[in-house]
Amino acid sequence: MLIDKSDNSNHLKKINELVITCKKCSLSSGRKNAVPGVGPPFATLMFVGEAPGSKEDEIGLPFVGKAGNLLEKLFIEVPIYREDVFITNVVKCRPPNNRNPLENEILSCKNYLMKQIEIINPRIIVTLGKYALLHFIPTGKISIDHGKNIPWKNRILYPIYHPAAALYNPKILETLKLDMSRIPELLRSSLSTKNKK
Ligand code: URA
Ligand code: SF4
């Protein structure tokens, strides 16, 4: 069967439209821009962060501030090509003063991420930091689960530290680098086992 790629783009565009006009939680009132996420509609690799910060809120794109700059540097080292990856967040609007997202905000926003996963159908979902991990595995613990591949709904969940946590902590940075360096091989082997099935 031929897969119509434009269909996926259209589905994603619809999600984007819903997100940028969404008023399901009170974060809508403080935002300049909602940040739905960006990347190819058939990405095999998806990165999920926590929530937009001030730069992301200003521009409407994920990971374009300090944490994003570090993420990009790490991508280059591995290498992972940013344009091959779909990048988004658990919560699509910026919490005031970058506070942690609240339970009700995460719940209100949940469906957008779930729809994006369904449409894009990535093999590996890399979660960045505690909140993204908890979204998928409520009993998860980032200090224990980072760098593990965890089966999740026919996909692989791969939790790593959040780059913001690595900005001022060299030990976390080293761990993050090591965990990220394993991603290309993980992706290759998971795609080849999938194709054999
Ligand atoms: N931190 C996040 O978790 N997401 C972003 O988009 C930017 C910073
Ligand atoms: Fe809607 Fe999510 Fe933004 Fe809340 S954070 S207003 S649920 S898009």
Account of the 3D structure:
This protein is an alpha/beta fold. The chain has one domain: 3-Layer(aba) Sandwich (Uracil-DNA Glycosylase, subunit E), CATH 3.40.470.10. Helix content is 48%, strand content 12%. The chain has nine helices and five strands. It has a five-stranded mixed β-sheet with strand order 2-1-3-5-4, sandwiched between helices. A hairpin with a 2-residue loop joins strand 4 (150-152) and strand 5. Helix 1 runs antiparallel to helix 4 (103-120). The chain is globular, with a radius of gyration of 16 Å. The chain binds uracil (URA) and iron/sulfur cluster.
Number of strands: 5
The ligands bound in this entry are: uracil, iron/sulfur cluster
Name given to the CATH architecture: 3-Layer(aba) Sandwich
Overall form: globular
Q: Could you say how many structural domains there are in total?
A: 1
Order of helices and strands: HEHHEHEHHEEHHH
What's the main sheet like?
A: 5 strands, mixed
- The percentage helix is 40-55%
CATH superfamily: Uracil-DNA glycosylase-like domain
- Measure the end-to-end span: 17 Å
What structural category characterises the helix and strand content? alpha/beta
The strand line-up of the biggest sheet is 2-1-3-5-4
The low-pLDDT segments are: none
Question: Rg to the nearest angstrom?
Answer: 16 Å
Number of helices: 9
Portion in strands: 5-15%
CATH top level class name = Alpha Beta
